[in-house]
Amino acid sequence: MYSDIDFSSVIPQELEGRDILTVNNEPSMEINNKVLEFIPGYETVYKAVDMIMSEDPQDQFTFPEEFLNSLTPPGLPPYEL
Questions:
Q1: Of 12, 18, 19, 70, which sits with the fewest C-beta atoms within 10 Å of its C-beta?
Q2: Is the same domain home to 24 and 2?
Q3: What is the residue-level pLDDT of the chain in tens, covering all 81 positions?
């Protein structure tokens, strides 16, 4: 619906309270990142915890940390906010 939006002419307050609905997370994250570029203020990045809690120490080697950080499962925020 907003794929052709000109973000350089949008006033951030006009998007306040609106939702981004997509079939999967990737397009909504792209749109969200474009909108965030135009919001004034300082940027702060928050990262998720990236430790595996397991009884078996070998579990930490099953998947590379980079792979786990790239996942965006439904209902969970991305690794980097």
A1: 19
A2: yes
A3: 556 667 677 777 777 787 777 777 788 788 888 878 877 888 888 998 777 777 887 877 787 888 888 888 878 888 888
In the numeric block, the tokens 């998007």 are attached to: 15
Between the alpha carbon of residue 77 and those of residues 19, 55, 58, the distances in Å are: 15, 26, 26
Calpha distance 68→49 (Å, rounded):
11
Dihedral of alpha carbons 46, 48, 49, 50, sign: negative
User: In terms of domains, do 59 and 24 share one?
Assistant: no
39 and 68 share one domain: no
Residues 49 and 38 in one domain: no
C-alpha span between 78 and 12 (Å, rounded): 22
The residue range of the domain holding 20 is 1-43
